[in-house]
Amino acid sequence: MRQYAIRRLLLLIPTMLLVSIIVFLMIRLIPGDVIDLIMRQNMFQTQHNREVTQEAIRHRLGLDQPMLVQYGKWMWALFHGDLGTSMWTDRPVTEELRNRLPISIELGLIGIIIGLLIALPVGIISGIRQDSAADYIGRIFAILCIAVPNFWIATMVIVFPSIWFHWTPNLQVIPFSSNPMGHIVQFIIPGTVLGMALSGYTMRMTRTMMLETLRQDYIRTAWSKGLSERMVITRHALKNALIPVVSIAALQVPILIGGEVIIEQIFSLPGIGRYFLDAISNRDYAVVSGINIVVALIIVLNNLGTDLLYGLIDPRIKY
Amino acid sequence: MSLETTTTIRTKSKKSRSLLQDVFIRLITQKPLGLVGGIIVLIMLLTGIFANFLAPHSYSEYISGQFLKPPSINYPMGTDNVGRDIFSRVIYGARVSMIVGLSGAFIDVMIAAFIGILCGYIGGKLDLIVQRFVDAFMCFPALMLVITVMSIVGNGMTQITVVLGIVWGIGGSRIVRGAVISIKENVYIEAARSIGASLLKMITRHLLPNIMAPLIVLFTIAVGGIILAEASMSFLGYGIPPPTPSWGGMLSGNGRYYMQLAWWMAFWPGLALTTAVFGVNMLGDALRDLFDPRLRGGLGRFNLSKVNKIKNKIDNLNRNK
Questions:
Q1: Do B147 and A254 touch (CB under 8 A)?
Q2: Burial code of B280-310, b = ≥16 C-beta within 10 A, e = fewer?
Q3: With contact defined as beta carbons under 8 Å apart, do A126 and A205 qualify?
């Protein structure tokens, strides 16, 4: 187990190096310079002044150096936990992320929890009562959850209550310190929208695993011992069926982060998704690279953690 | 005697049915949900193809004096803030979605097959290096990756289709690679190699026909995902630029700005989008079960492949110790 974990951690190094190169280069390929955008703010300047300022900004941001030097500096800072400063607002990316990441993580966690709360019961019933009416409804519901675009549902959730009841979801962030209950409650609606797509996949996986487990020999043994259905399902089937479901739910983090980009935009939540969209349209290299590398690291560690967890909860797998 | 002849004929005719025919008949007889999905997809396809004849107005026609009209007999889905008929725009949107979905999925399968076969069949150092790149790509959420790439290549229908096809294809190459590796050890591959079959012949005659089922499944899964992704991107403003009617694009900008005033501007395109993706996914699910029940155990059959996978994992780990 320990050896396996160490080997997997070592394998992360080449992957993360490649990721860092992709992250660094990709954003710098975007046509249109951050300088041009910054310069647009100082319109009323003479041509000479403009050029001087332009060069000064370029120098200050370190963009006049060769690409390789820029990359080296960026990586060096990265190892020291410094993601650079925003080229637009001059605020350190690390500090900005420290404020925004908790919001995104909270939203994501609530999304996962709500997704599981919908997915598990429906998936389990669907699996136990295969080909019954409940099964068909459950399956249609699962595919519907995947098919419904989250940005549409999110829009409708804002539009229709406001037309019918003149009520709109709160679009301002309540800090945890001032109102802990309100703080959590405000995430429920965006979290549900976010959790829907996840619940679709999880539901199908739960159903499949339930069907598979119920055909195993030990389940037949449990039945023939004369155990009640509740006993067979909860004690024998569920424990085994839910192991792969855990990994499927955990591996949906990339989809979750993608969804957050949209949901945070619609519900005006100041998380990393909105930060990312703003940074892309401002050509803010440092911010985009910073967010990308942090997100990639989260996903990589999440995948590693899932694999290791899998080994822990499933004694049949020995590393 | 006569009875025997008829049975022979019957079994013969049953066997001579091609894979596609067989799948088609089983879809109708065994998969009610898949059939519903298929009908939805067919309707969407026909709507897209005959959009010119079905739509009462052009998608960019400004009807004077008819701004923000609620749904009525003349305008079944209402009109938008500049007086365009939303019903017509939704119909034309079907065409856009179908083109993007189908051609994106086609690019996806081509790329997945190319990388998958190359890595799976040749293996060795090439596989090792290419797989590290695939690893790195999988570390990004698809949506963030697509947004970044789209801001490099610029908005447009061709761009979004190609970008989505490539991103989906890199992900899908893993599945193809796995399928190739699992059939590589078969005797007929070894036999072909021993009589000196060229790489090209090997791929076209032996590998491709045998990974057809996963490729078709990959295609059907991708169509729904790509349609949805295009809509999301157009919604965020990184997809198909106006005035081309993309269902996602119709929900963004003005659709959102006027939503309190005119719910129909955002409601109908989203409903069309949901229906289309729902149909494609249901059809895709059914096809996956019919083509390859082992792929995800969709039929709930005893899933040997999974057990074998775990067994192999354990064996590999023991060997590596």
A1: no
A2: bbbbbbbbbbbbbeebbbbbbeebeebeeee
A3: no
Contact B92, B117 (CB under 8 A): no
Report the alpha-carbon distance of residue A27 to residue B144 in Å, rounded.
Answer: 12
Is residue B78 left, alpha or beta, with left meaning phi > 0 and alpha meaning psi from -120 to 50? left
Q: How far apart are CA A77 and CA A83, in angstroms?
A: 7
For residue B126, give both structure tokens: 């090439």
A275-286 confidence digits (pLDDT tens): 898 888 887 878
Q: Tell me what ipTM this predicted complex has.
A: 0.82
Beta bridge partners of residue A92, listed in sequence order: A85
Q: Report the pLDDT value the prediction gives residue A171, as an integer from 0 to 100.
A: 64
pLDDT of residue B13 exceeding 60: no
pTM over 0.90: no
Which residues on adjacent β-strands are paired with residue A85?
Answer: A92
**Exposure class string for B56-82: b at 16+ Cβ within 10 A, else e:** ebebeeebeebeebebeeebebbbbee
Inter-chain touch A147–B136, beta carbons under 8 Å: no
The whole-angstrom separation of Cα B90 and Cα A153 is 18
Answer whether B247's CB lies under 8 Å from B97's CB.
yes
Pairs of residues, one from chain A and one from chain B, whose beta carbons lie less than 8 Å apart: 158
Instruction: Report yes or no: A6 at the B interface, CB cutoff 8 Å.
Output: no
